[in-house]
Amino acid sequence: MRAAFRHHGLTLLLATLGFGPGVAAMAAAVETATQPLARTTHVSVLPGSGHSWGFAAKDPTRPYLFIARRENGLTVFNTDTQQAVRTLDDSSGANGVVFVPDADRAYLANMDGSLTVVRLSDLKTLRRLPVTDANLNSAVYEPISRRVIIASGRRANQSTLYILDPKQDRIVGERNVDIKKIDPLLVLGDGNLLLPMRDEGKVIRLNGKTLETLASYSFPGCVQPSALASDNAGRRLFIACRGKAPILTIANLDSGAPIASLPITPAVNALAWDSAQRRLLIPSGNAGNLSVVQQDDPDRYRMLGYVGTRLWAHNMVYDQARSSVYLFSMDFTQPAADAAGRKQDPVFHADSFTVLTLTLNPPTR
Fold this sequence. Notes:
Elements: H1 2-16, H2 21-33, E1 38-46, E2 56-58, E3 64-68, E4 74-78, E5 83-87, E6 94-100, E7 105-110, E8 114-119, E9 124-130, E10 136-142, E11 147-152, E12 159-165, E13 170-177, E14 186-187, E15 192-197, E16 202-207, E17 213-217, E18 224-231, E19 236-242, E20 247-252, E21 258-263, E22 272-274, E23 279-284, E24 289-297, E25 300-308, E26 316-319, E27 324-329, E28 332-333, E29 347-348, E30 353-360
Antiparallel strand pairs: 1-30, 2-3, 3-4, 4-5, 6-7, 7-8, 8-9, 10-11, 11-12, 12-13, 14-15, 15-16, 16-17, 18-19, 19-20, 20-21, 22-23, 23-24, 24-25, 26-27, 27-30, 28-29
């Protein structure tokens, strides 16, 4: 309403000064184009001495985020109060999390290769299940087969997908994949999964029950596919591609045929599709921003711009019902290069872990 009033007032002012309606319309369009894409609504800092963190996910039963903070365990964070609810028992090394509400379960993929089993309703840790002798990276729930698929962390040449039956809290199968690093899988909801193979430069489609490879896709200019999202209604697949010239690739979700591409920011780890606003969200912890891409129709896309966030804010949770983006970062010091000119690792500051909440503004009309 305020924007409409402002544009109406601008039109009257320009008309009074002798300008025609065309000039007034152009001025209003410029003003609309510069409206903020999003606004920062909360910045919450949590205690902890850890120097790394993993993934996060939204609790499907209440306004909680489960934040895997590795050395600091799994933090349950209330997005209404912007307060930490608790750190789950026996969750040290938590790297990823997945929910199975029908089984009253949450599972934590841990850095020591174990899986922490949590009763979702009361947040009680039930057991820590050994899976492998090396780190686990992430996990997803495939609703058709009613199985949890757990991905191992980076390996030398071959990684493993583990299948867990939530009725038994037990690993019931596994499949080795000739891939160095398994980035988070995309659940399609039809019984199939998509897996980005960053180092191998392709995406494969898997049967969610057997993990059999059904198809393999490569895309022009997509050197390192690292993150996936989908528009199921429009049958479109979005692929964030790392490399010297990072791009967003849009492909047919069924055939894998490429449709369009756009340049994007570097080192993208996550994507989120907003089906209501028909927007794709692309965080970059390397660039310290959140890009917003508008879908005009399933074959046409426009980069609207980006909003500044923070360096290292590369993992994201998106709550479409609230139009809220949650990003995670820490303060850090970047030491100078050593005498040989080698870049040093950043030093993260204790008690600086930050949950950054952005709220998307609705599209201008």
